[in-house]
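Re: that chain you flagged

S.,

Sorry for the slow reply, it's been a week of failed gels. I finally had a moment to sit down with the sequence you sent. For the record, here it is as I used it:
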Amino acid sequence: HMHSSFSADSDTSMEDMIREAICRGLTGICFTEHLDPDYPPTPDNEIFELDLDGYRETLFRLREKYQKELQIHFGIELGLQPHLHDYFHELLATMPFDFVIGSSHVVHGYDPYYKEYFKGREESACYREYFESILENIAAFDEFDVYGHIDYVVRYGPNKNADYTYKKFKDVIDEILRQLVARGKGIELNMAGFKYGLGHPNPTEEILHRYRELGGEIITVGADGHAPDQIAWDFEKVPGILKAAGFDYFTVFTKRKPEFI
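Prediction finished late last night. Pasting the structure tokens below so you have them in one place:
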């Protein structure tokens, strides 16, 4: 789970991200640029668009250039909304992605990244609406490989995770996990929670453990890096987190097929 300047929220060239990954001793990475169609207007008028052809062309060129030093996979992070199912279905039939993350960024017209989502409402109600919207997305479209940062909303809440626990939202989170397991879908260990000062990954360790308990088998690891200094963020903690959750491997997708490492 990694971004470059092909994503609207990153200013770093793909080649700079690749060079830094090599410097940090990684053996493989996967770019998962943002594709968020029908993204609402933002307070800073940021345009959320992806030059998909340019992205593919650049990645394939750099993949060849650095093939002896780093394995580079071609992924996408789809910003799911129920009405986009046909668009995404058609897109995935035409693009040779290695890996597809389905993520919830926009909830009923608002991205929790912006304060408007929380305005005049109870934080816990905002969190619950976010989780319920994941169930709507899964019901509408399930052609992704893993669901991204299931508790993304907590990064941006007024109190972040001070009043947030898995137990508080157990009913809806368990239903999300059951739906994913039933469809043979994975989740990610997204280390950016540490970057955002939460002291936990997204989703939290308890949720990773619960996914495993419910029969979940697919877990990918990402830093959600948008700049060179965020690559492999806190990855030294990864083995301990995975083992505590009941995993003795992690998952890498090539041409949409999982490999357990």
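What I noticed first: The helical segments are 14-23, 52-65, 85-94, 123-140, 170-182, 192-195, 205-213, 238-244.

Talk soon,
D.
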